[in-house]
Structures are given as structure tokens and as C-alpha cells.
Amino acid sequence: MSTSNIRIGAHVRDDEPLAAAAERDADVVQFFLADPQKWHKPKPRTDADALREADTQVFIHAPYIVNVASTNNRIRIPSRKIMREHATAAKEIGAMGLIVHGGHVTKDDDPAVGVDNWRKAFLEAHEKYGGLDTPILIENTAGGNFSMARRLDALARLWDAVGEFEPGFCLDTCHAHAGGIDLLTAVEKIKAITGRIDLVHCNDSRDAFDSGRDRHATIGQGEIDPKLLAEVVLAAGAPVVVETPDDGQAEDIAFLRSSLP
Q: Is residue 2 part of a domain?
């Protein structure tokens, strides 16, 4: 058993997250508040009191379709709205953060516009709505040459634009590996840019380094050395969520705990 203070858990089903956490012996839980592929406003939860009062740390993942960097009005505008709505709903259940993918623009767009759209999203939230109710944790992504948070240089440009709003950062190990970021130095280099890592998504990768493919694997069944994953977790010093296949999550959590000093 680890003597570390690092808390470890999993992304679980949305309907009974605390029960799912207990099944996995998880002390962190992450889940969705609405369909991750639709523009739905979260509904009030009957377990809100239990989630707020639980010892289990709660994180919420924004829908996958959120892309505040987009130059397409039909994507960018609802993305801003749904990010605010999920941040408010996350606060109501005591969540520590709302994870939002860094997003992307198309090959016909100037990536600087995507960066500026992120800045405008924070500006709008602060100037029109008094801020966001839950900290936004921007997550690095695995693929695309026009992504806001795949490469370290892109991440640096993004933080230059939004750093004053003090967003948090979520490091996904599969995304970093597939996105071409060396995990041996990822924590050091990311902290030099963002100043922080607030959450680690500790996932193995089914694909090779710099493949650009976002396919998670159970720890030890992919392309990343399990010892390296444990080293990333220790170096980051942040809560951990495994987003690996359900049937192996309890073992992934146990492995990480046993690997920490």
C-alpha cells in the first residue's frame, strides 16, 4: 500500500458514481453530467448532497463535443454556453474541476484564432457572468495538427493567452504519448508552461508514440511502460483518474497505489 498522499480513482458510469467508486476502491471519481455527444444542459442530480458530502473527490468531464477554439459559430457559441452550464452544475455537486479538451481549428484556419477564441470564452464568462463556477481544467489532446493543446509549443501559446484567468491543467498520459510529448519530461515541461498540473488522466495507449490516435488501454496492455506511468503520477503530485476499460480499473488503481512510495 502506498504511503503517498496522491488520491487515485476512475472515470465511471454517470448514474451511480459513488457506488462505482466503491467497487473500484477509488478515492477520486470522474463522470459526465450529460450525454457527452450532445448539447444538453445538465439536469439536477438526486445524489447531489451525497456527492458534496462524500470523502471521494469529484471531477466532471465536459462533453466531448465542446470546442471553444472552433471558428464555426455553430460549435463555438454552444460550446461556451455548455461549458458555463456544466461548470455551474459541477459546483452544485461539489466538484473540484471541470475537464475541457483543448479543442482545435481546421486546416483552413489560423491556429491563433483558436487561441483567441479560448481567451474570448474566459473573457465572456468573467465580464458577462462573473466568472465560471468551477475551475476549468484544460486537457491536452492526442491528435490533429491544428490542436490547441497537443504539442508543447501550442500549449505555451494557449497559456500566454489564457494564463491570466488561472485555468487548471489536466495531463492525459495516453494523449501525451500519442500526441508526441515525451512522458519522461512531460511533467517538468508542462509545469514550466502552465505552472501547475491539477489532475492526471493515467491511461496506457494502444498506439505508438506520436501516432495521433486517442485509444486508451489498461495499464500494462499498451505501448507505455507501466513504471513510466507511475513516475509521471508521482512527479505530477496531483489526483489521478484512470480512464481505462471498466473491467481493469480496480487493478489499474491498485497497481498505481502499490507503485508509489
A: no
